Amino acid sequence: MAVLTVHGIKVPLQPEDVSPIIWQALANGSYEAKEARWVFKAVKRNDRVLELGTGIGVITSLIGKIPGVQVWAFEANPSTAALAKRVIDANNLGNVTLQQGILAAGAPRTFRFYARKDLWMSSMDEKQGPYEDVISIASTNIDEFIFQHKINVLVMDIEGAERDLIRGAQLPGVQRVFLELHDHLYGLSGIRDITQALATKGYAYDPRGSRGACVLFAKDDGPREYEPEAADAA
């Protein structure tokens, strides 16, 4: 079995485990490169992190390597979750708990999840493109999970589902929300819905931890840690 190193993470996968485009991104180091760089602005030492949309576990493993951090990670697609477990285990991360499933706002209900060849395109949106399989998955209430596990940081890349989740969830005790926006799915109106919902809950857009579609919203304030190029351009 091939063992790639991606952003310092061991990735014991074979080309047939993923689509050609994802394998190429893994091989050349571009896989989730922006997230890999900017997630460290959102997650700090000793944080308790909930990650939604684990994928193959590269970002999960990066978070798990931060000293003192505890991570609870969710991936909806069973086959992708199996790959993520392989990656997490290869990096000896006993502080990461991986679950296959969906967290959503409100009472538990059943969602239809559309699995696609490019796993990063799999989502609950039927219109996102051709899919290979449809999986029915019962959700768990996200606010109850956050409260039970004393989560203070939420990280998510859930292919457009963030819009409804953020509007409906209360996020008790969460100080920072780091997410990838998907404006190609919901346009600027969706961006507006997300930012307004987070503002109502007391979060502010934090430019210190944001770059393009990877954005950080925070309640807590801290040192003004900007990237050097941002400071030079100011």
Automatic annotation (TrEMBL):
One of its GO terms (molecular function) is methyltransferase activity. SUPFAM superfamilies: S-adenosyl-L-methionine-dependent methyltransferases. CDD domains: AdoMet_MTases. Residues 67-203 form the Methyltransferase FkbM domain. One of its GO terms (biological process) is methylation. It comes from the Bacteria. Keywords: Methyltransferase, Transferase. InterPro entries: FkbM_mtfrase (IPR006342), SAM-dependent_MTases_sf (IPR029063). This is FkbM family methyltransferase.
